[in-house]
Each structure stands twice: as structure tokens, then as C-alpha cells.
# Entry
Amino acid sequence: MSSGSATTTTIKPADLRGILKYVPRFQDQIFVIALDGSIVADENFPNILLDAAVLRSLGIKIVIVHGIGHQIEELAKTRQIAITDSQGTGATDAATLDLAIRPSSRVTHLFIEGLTQNGLKAALTNAVRAIPLGIIKGVDHQFTGRVDRIDKEFLNQLISSQVVPVLNPIGFDRDGRPLRINSDLLAAELAEALHATKIIYFTPCEGLEINGKLRHEISAEALRTVLDSKPDSINEPMRSKAAHAIKAVENGTPRIHLIDGRLLDGLLNEIFSNEGVGTLIHGNEYQQIRKATRRDVRAIYNLTRQAVKREELVYRTQLAIEKNIEHFSVFEIDENIIACVSLQFYPDKPKFAEIGSLYVMPFYHHRGIGKKMVDYGCMMAKERGATTVIALSTQAFSFFTSVCGFEEAEKEVLPESRLKAYEESGRNSKVLIRKL
# Structure
């Protein structure tokens, strides 16, 4: 077993209040959990299976896929056998296939053993029919295969019977002959066939890096641009997963997570916290600004109260937010509200609108979300006939002027009713204005 970098992160998985608020969102959904062979060999592997059991206990359906690249390389060294490929992407000769079958069975056994210890039923399946990859660019890939068909009815039967399907990277052709399949590819194909809402790849890296910088989230569209134009800028172990994540999003899987499998409680922290701990790859529809509803009142109140303590925002009770909820818009990531803004109109100056209650969670600062919220507010104001937008700020005025195109103005530009409230507040906010 290799030594992992197991450290405890922000969320306390034992805090049921924190976890249970997510349960209604994920209950009865299918998550495909894919582990690299190196993570199976890591000391944190039993903790991942325990976390998987937690997901299952909360009504989340799981399917497990594993790789064997690490194990093939170790066995090849021990037996001094030359192999043609360890990852299931290059050519697989007969000796490599024979070597792959042995650790594949052993690793699957470790999964079933660990799941059993955690009180879960599990089964190895032959639900994947494969066909040879064939000759690509003049290279015969021999016993390397790709997915031809997935027996989703069989897998759904197992899932409905509270059984966790475990799939290893060996598929079978029509005649029952084995073929080596890349596990990243297999996870993406499974997610598509089963209409999974998430693929969770466990890797020996913190996540996806671009030019050496860890990305906590990126759209599939943006990732495709990077992969097409500068593939070398992505950390090498993540390139395969990046390519398959893009394919998965295009085929209907909304979210793909890349998590460091050596991290203690990484799975629960990624799924059950706003910030997450790895990289999230998502479709364009995933991030969105929308009008707030009454269901968002408590989330908006909790989101802004730290800013109220720092006197960045005016204090509003939950009742006050609820009363004016139609003025609010929110920015969602994975169904979590991470930013808000309000837009207020004044009867005595119908061409004026005020942007207020702008707040973005600190974790998401410097990602352009604040500007998007302001621009969205200005767009909505313009659609409703406003020609001028105002904002009042005590601490973020430089953001409005340098980033959002506002200019400082005298308080007399305020509508009469707003000027009265401004003077009574005693906050002495700067008055900022932007022509539409």
C-alpha cells in the first residue's frame, strides 16, 4: 500500500445537518464512481468505500468502475514481462491481455470484499459487450477494445435490488473473448447508458490543472477549447479524463468530478459542500443566474449575513427578504446558491433602477461572477425600460467603477424616496451610476 496525502478538509461528514440538505437533490440518482488502479493501491482506498456506503445509505444509487494500470505495471515488473500498454488505450498484445486479466480479477475482489465489510451487496457483471478497437493510423490495437453495448436492463435490475454493480476494464465480445477497455472510457459509456447525473473520477492528482494551476470548475466547452488548442497545458494524468468528461457532458451527463483519491473524506466533501475539493467539469446549462423564489429566502439570508457583519451590506431580516424576493436573482452552481443580487425600481423615477445586495461567496471570488451578476442586473433593468442604473456601496465601490463601468455621482441623483432612506441610514455610501 502506498502512503497517501490523507488530510481532513473543511466539511465534517458527521455533521448530518450539512449533508442531509443535499439528500433530496440526489436521492434515486445514479452516480458512476471510477477509481484509478493507483487509488485502489493507496491506503485511503477503504475510506472511499466507506464514503460510497454513506452515499448508498442516503438513497443515492452507485455503480463502480475501476482501472488496473498500476497493477499491470507492478505485475509486469515482478514477472519481468514486457507489456505493450497498461492503460487500455494503446495496443494490447496477448501477453499484456493475459497479464491484465489477473490483476483485474484481484482488484474486483478487493472492491467486493470492501463493500461487503460496509454492509453492501455487490456483484461483478459481464454487462459490457466489447468489440476490437481495430487498426487506427496503421496501428493494430489487437486485444484493446471499445464498448459496443451495455446491458443497462441487467444493471438497473441489480441497482433496483440494492446491489452495487462493479465493472472492471475487461469486456467480452459476442463470442465471449476478453478485450481490454480503458476505464475512463468505460465510466463515460456507463454514465450515458444509465442516465447517470455524475461521474466521479478518483485520481492520484488534486484535480485538473491548466498551465500548472488547479481549476476548481470549468465548462466542457472551455475545456474542449484547451484540449484542442493546447493539450500539453493540461496535467498529463488528467488528459484522458478531460477528453472523456467532454464526451460524457455532450452525451447527457451533467457533471463530472475529478477528485484526489488520496484525500480523506474527499468524496463526501466534493458532493456535500458548496466548494468541493477537486475539479468540476460541467455543461453550459450547469451554471446559471435565475430569478429567486420563496424557497431561496433562507439561502440568501445565510449567504449575505457575513457581509452584513462586515457592514458591506445592509441588514435584512428573512421576512424582509421574503417580502422583496421578486427583486432578487441568484447564481447557482450544482443547485447551490453562491451569489445574489437585487434590482429595485422606483415609481417616482421609472427610468432609474438600483442594483443592490450584491454578494458572492468568498470561495468564488476572482472568477467574474460578481461582474456577471451586475451585468445581468443591468440587462434586466434595460429590458424593463430603465436608462440609468445606480448602486450604493461603502466598501466595494472600486469594483463597481473599475470593473463594472460605474461612475461616482452626487446623492441628489437618487430618487426622492431612496434619498430619504439614504440619509436616514447614516452609512454615507458612495453613490455610483451607470448609463445604459
About this structure: The longest strand covers residues 349-360. The radius of gyration is 26 Å. Residues 94-117 form the longest helix (24 residues). Confidence is low (pLDDT under 50) at residues 1-9.
